[in-house]
Amino acid sequence: MTPVRHLTLPQSGLRLLIVIAVAAAGFPFPVPAQVNIEALRQDDPPLGYSGTFGGDLTVRTGNVELVQIGLNARVYRVTESVTRLMVGNGGLGLQGGGRFASSGLLHYRETYWPNDRISPEWYGQLNYDRPQLLDFRMVAGGGARTSVGGGEWGDFGMGAAVFLEHERLDLTEAAVHDTETTVIRGNYFLTLRLVPSENLVIASTTYLQPVVADWGDLRTLVNFRLATSVSDDIDLTVSFDLRYDSEPPDAISALDTSLRTGLRYSF
Known about the structure:
Blueprint: H1 11-26, E1 48-61, E2 66-78, E3 82-95, E4 99-100, E5 103-112, E6 118-129, E7 134-151, E8 154-169, E9 180-197, E10 200-211, E11 214-229, E12 234-245, E13 255-266
Antiparallel strand pairs: 1-2, 1-13, 2-3, 3-4, 3-5, 5-6, 6-7, 7-8, 8-9, 9-10, 10-11, 11-12, 12-13
């Protein structure tokens, strides 16, 4: 795939990009209630400001069956020692012949590069997902990542973190599941990126997120993504997500899947 090009932005341009990322988070869009930002990361963003803005078509099954058009934006600010990333996701979709599904996400992360082996990082995230009965979710935590191996073929990495999670759910008074919870979860993940050619990238990420005090309360997320270059600035992307929650809220399925096809513009 064609590398993302370096771009030096004036302050007005930077403000516009941040507004786009925040605005995208305000639109409804199906996002799993987990920290799933690895699929949106770029391995080697250039120094300075860069990012992407795109849209996709989602087909979702499980707790809700719907078709949606989504928006997504990410903005990088990279120096020699730290990479800052802001991500916003949003979209619009018609569900059940007339009801709009609604969800959105805003994520901020800083990753530090003291050496070539271990990269500490911290992050914060806000999101909501009405099909999942999630009125509000806040996540804040930190950890470290490492690259196990890499080359022209791609790379393989892993990471571990701990984060504080606060959730408010839209449940009835008769519900067994707590309406509001605050827990500490572990976040363990594996990433694999394959580059069969300069115009094709295949990536996968697998997450395990257990409650530290109760490993029976486990969330798992698997993402597969294929991206191929249409032009120097535009990629065609196809993504598949599988999400499993061992203790879902009342009337919510433990398993969700989604399939997304879209275009992404890189600057």
